[in-house]
Amino acid sequence: MSEVEKESLYASIYSWAYKTAKTILESRKEAGDGEDLVRRLIYSIRSEETPGRFLDKLATSIAEFRTNRAYNLDVSIHSTLLKVELRGDSFHLAKASILSGLLGALATPEG
């Protein structure tokens, strides 16, 4: 994979994470728990240091948000995360992109 393709991949992952967090925040605005759900997602994935466990925690959290009737959110995991081999630097860059996107959505004012 070329450097340009790698940059595009991580930008795409960041964008997905940002949009996912914004979807959660917007969808749960009335309930008032959107920020808590995004924070819970961040806390559940940030400590995972292996790609398999990280993706498992991420997929489990996203699936809960989508299938739990209390939330019923229109979110899904980025398909590219399941197609590319994440190990070493590529794993840490993907993880950083996801966490940055989620945190960026929390930090961005509504509007």
In short, what is this structure?
The chain is an all-alpha fold.
Q: In what range is the share of β-strand residues?
A: under 5%
Sheet bearing the most strands, described? Answer: none
Radius of gyration from the alpha-carbon trace, in angstroms: 14 Å
Query: Distance between termini?
Result: 37 Å
Q: What oligomeric state do these chains adopt?
A: single chain
User: What is the tally of helical segments?
Assistant: 5
Low-confidence stretches: none
Shape category: globular
Secondary-structure class: mainly alpha
Overall domain count: 1
| SSE order, one letter for each helix or strand | HHHHH
**Average pLDDT level:** 93
Residues in helix, %:
over 70%
Question: What is the β-strand count?
Answer: 0
Notes on the structure:
The chain is mainly alpha-helical. The protein has one domain. It is 71% helix and 0% strand. It contains five helices and no strands. It has helices at 3-27, 34-46, 51-67, 79-83, 89-107. Helix 1 packs parallel to helix 5. The termini are far apart. The mean pLDDT is 93.
